[in-house]
Amino acid sequence: MSDTAPEPSGVLVPILDGGIPRAALPVRSLVLVAPRAMYPMRIAKDLSRDDEHPEFGMMRHLQAYRRGPRGAAEPIRPIEWDRIRIAMDALSMELDREGLARAAPGLEHPLRDRIYEERARRVLPPGVFVWFDEFEAAHQSHVRLWEEERPGDLDLILNPMLSPAERAEVMQGFAEDRREPKPKPATQEPAAPVTAPDPDQSDIALGRSRRAQLQGMAERRKGTADDRSQEWARWHAKGAEIRAGRKKPISNRALAPLVKAALTLPDSTEIIRRKL
Predict the structure, then answer these.
(1) Is 68 helix (H, G, I), strand (E, B) or coil?
(2) Could you give the 3-state DSSP secondary structure of residue 144?
(3) Is there a domain that residue 186 lies in?
(4) What's the domain range around 230?
(5) Nearest 5°: CA angle at 119, between 109 and 178?
(6) I need a labelling partner for 160 at 20 to 30 A (CA). Which of 21, 186, 204, 215 fits?
(7) What pTM value is reported for the model?
């Protein structure tokens, strides 16, 4: 298990847990994150607490959640996964009818398995997740005695290669957490009115009027900066609160999206990171 918390990217999403943002993984992403250990039916069986093959149940002791009406994590009962398993069995029968039956009992059919995995992943419910730290610990324990056929085969892939359509499918139900707001256009200071010189007004009077206009603009800018300073202080306070609630250190880049989620900020994570 890594010594430091991974930076929120790829398929990780921040979800509030007891008021503190915590990294979560959509269940639809688990096949991509841990391809050697996870496949859709295994996920559904484990979360339904199936006792048929407990030795294979990496996730049997994990809890899946959805967000309740107030955004808090709400546990999903094992019985709710029975319907998902039935839907996956029906999908398998449908593939058999399409002529994609396995070559022989016990033998894998690569094309069929690929098609099945893609379709079965869509059967997994959107907006459902597990906590990343719990999944990481379960995976580490599960594969510790496995042998790698290639370097990195047993690593968790937190930023898998996905097409835009695949990403939308995997992240369905989490779009609001990951959407970067469009940057607001810079506030334009109203242009100072240009007054035609009054032939009866002296150069000194004109200069005094222009200085008054510039001073007013400077005071408005200072007021805006003061307001933003108070907002940045609020970001700092929330960042310190999140850090205090974590057991491991966290970088500003990883902290920024958590502060953004906790305070529901419209600012981009990059701007928040610079001010932390």
Answers:
(1) coil
(2) coil
(3) no
(4) 203-275
(5) 130
(6) 21
(7) 0.58
